[in-house]
């Protein structure tokens, strides 16, 4: 495209000297001829790279840097490593009167870049519009590169003394200089050889995750009215023939399936006033019917009910040979309950695993997943997202606040890579994020069970994970759940809660010690889902360490009442408090020891009342008051034989003779023989 820019500038000057038409019409006539001449259909199946002469191979070409080309454009010097088969675009000029170039494929292409010290790099420009021999030079969009963490600084050094000026910096630390041809920035490139593709190190200029220029992180492409179709292009730009010719040649593309150009009355509206596009099916019903040996109507219905998101290569096998749709390896969550929210939960006390907070994911339906983090950076929160995708699945969308750990870095790259639609709250509007009340609910329940069991505060990371998972397994009275659990609504199968009903939080247990070949006491810290076999548990030892074991059983209550167990449990807890107890953290208050459960989580004491997150629940059954209706119901037992305990508690068979109306309790109102 840069070559076209330079050519258009030269032709423009010639037209000024030899044409009697105005500069505007001269440019427009040239562009119309160019686009009309290149209009054709593209066939991936019979694709062959354009032939280059020996001089063209040696001389190479330019990779122009242009933010008005909203997607990378690859010319004939590009080496196509693979095509995105289900993505085609229709590109056009700045005006609908110029026509369009239909069926342009999206490709992942490679260029060779030679440094001054004779070192060669392979530059990957993924998601590029492939124009092939229609264009000598190629184009890169700096915003598309920035989205892949490649810093593009085109400020000329003649105006700026900054060492980063006129450079392109890659995440690996490699920096290549930007050159200028007049006022046009570029880097020199050429088509790589087969050996260079296999051997030379690679620099990723733009990543393989789906690129949509209409919704970048910086919101660069808002629709706006650019100009009237009846007015001249020079009415909307400066009276600069070179600038006008540059603007008129830019292409706009996107990789969605709906048009973004609309002609409404006399106003031409578009994203950045470029062009429109359309998608093309990757396979026809006839091809599918022949391939799968099925009927044509079945093939048509199958294509309507499924997608075919895959990469087809051009046949050049290499060690980088791989597919690009990573999200196909993961479960796709439905749109109904697949809209998730996330937020970071910060804790003042560092846990025994070194965590200082964590990310909570929720869908607003009562499903929670808490994943602890060492810090609040995007790298760490991004790892929690990867784990969430692996364990739960790909959400339809993810809503968060505007903090950098969710907007930048690894977290953003994973969102783009797996095609998860990301939205944000307005600044200073936490109520727009449903993860905020979810954090309060998890913290409230965790604080209650930690206080009731005198759990050391530094074990909060285990308790938060246990609490979030447990609340997802509770069938609440929400109408949306219809008596089912949030877990079942998301995972689509009835959960088994054996692990949660076999043990209680911080319960005293026995585990089998391999060293002494005997059972020892420990405390239960929740299921260890990612370790060992099923029914494996995290347990706390007397030395303050935690291990995962499946050979764990609860200690019966009557054994805990024995003097021996009381002595052993006291020694155990004394050791725990010495190692990781609450007195070891600076937020501990000797006067009000239980305040530590509030101070560590930044919660006011008034925030916690004696009720569980889903309202009051009955821990013990209450005896109903004796009334006339109850006493009348006892008539059915007269003259019947029942089993009742005697004075010693032994069960005996007795006969009901009558009722004692003077008795006020259900235990003594029946007379037995």
Automatic annotation (TrEMBL):
Q: Which domain of life is it from?
A: Eukaryota
GO annotation terms (biological process)? DNA integration
List the GO molecular function terms: nucleic acid binding
The record ties this protein, via InterPro entries, to: Integrase_cat-core, RNaseH-like_sf, RNaseH_sf
Q: Which SUPFAM superfamilies match?
A: Ribonuclease H-like
Q: Which UniProt keywords apply?
A: Signal
* Signal peptide range in chain numbering: 1-26
Segments forming domain Integrase catalytic: 331-494
Its protein name is Integrase catalytic domain-containing protein
Native organism is Chaetoceros tenuissimus
